[in-house]
Specification:
It contains seven helices and ten strands. With about 220 residues, it is of the alpha/beta class. The strands form two sheets. A six-stranded mixed sheet has the order 6-7-8-3-9-10, with helices on both faces. Helix 3 packs parallel to helix 5. Bound molecules: adenosine-5'-triphosphate. The site of adenosine-5'-triphosphate (ATP) has 10 residues, from helix 1. Belongs to the ABC transporter superfamily. Macrolide exporter (TC 3.A.1.122) family. It comes from Pseudooctadecabacter jejudonensis.
Length: about 220
């Protein structure tokens, strides 16, 4: 099993005391699986994604990635898991403004010790970014930046890809094309994909679905 989430709870401080955002969420994913995370706005989808990626800590419960309890790791250990095993794609791209598109794409793969020029070139080509490689992020459209963010994550060949509305900024036709590419690429690299989406159309293209309602698996 690649990912195991057990009885995860998370609260945030609210005006009238703690607000429970996740209320005992459990789930698992095997290597290579695709899973759509759906639910109304505020149901806890992004919070769950952050906890799985070790970007935030739960109040209770645990997350295991490849059998390692990431809550038991120190900051350095969690950073190493994020660098080596997990790729995140958020709506806000988080590209590095001072690096070219090509360097942005190579960046995470280099950090993970898996730089592979041929694979990066293949990704750039398939994402339609070859003509943009020497440009800087600010010179790209939103949709192009989104594709760079996806290519950068896949270039490092993570075992688990966490994506929060990765095609949320794209028009429907482009979103479908990028989604097809993403699904092809995760299949090729045997990565698992856990993706938050509000789109029924995109959710239907994933193998499984987990629906959250008020912080619980519905
Ligand atoms: N850092 C925070 N501090 C306080 N409350 C927070 C924080 N982050 C999230 N929340 C609250 O937790 C709840 C769940 O947020 P979350 O972003 O996980 O929902 P979501 O299902 O991803 O929503 P959306 O579809 O709108 O992105 C919301 O009520 C939100 O206001």
């Amino acid at each position: 099993m690649l990912l195991s989430v057990s009885d995860l709870t998370k609260t945030y401080p609210g005006p009238d005391g703690q607000i429970t955002v996740l209320d005992g969420v459990s789930m698992t994913m095997d290597a290579g699986e695709t899973l759509a995370l759906t639910g109304e706005s505020g149901s806890g989808k992004s919070t769950l994604l952050h906890l799985v990626g070790g970007l935030d800590q739960p109040d209770s419960g645990r997350v295991d990635i490849e059998g390692v309890d990431i809550g038991a790791l120190d900051d350095g250990g969690r950073a190493a898991i994020r660098r080596d095993q997990v790729g995140v794609i958020f709506q806000q791209f988080n590209l590095i403004p001072s690096l070219t598109v090509a360097s942005n794409i190579a960046f995470q793969a280099r950090l993970a010790g898996r730089e592979d020029a041929a694979w990066s070139a293949d990704l750039s080509d398939r994402m339609g970014l070859t003509a943009q490689l020497t440009k800087y992020p600010e010179q790209l459209s939103g949709g192009q930046q989104q594709r760079v963010a996806i290519a950068r994550t896949l270039a490092a060949r993570p075992k688990l890809v966490l994506a929060d509305e990765p095609t949320g900024n794209l028009d429907e036709a482009t979103a479908d094309t990028v989604m097809t590419l993403m699904l092809d690429l995760v299949t090729e690299t045997q990565a698992a994909l856990l993706m938050v989406t509000h789109s029924e159309r995109l959710a239907a293209r994933m193998a499984r679905r987990l629906h959250l309602r008020a912080g619980r698996v519905a």
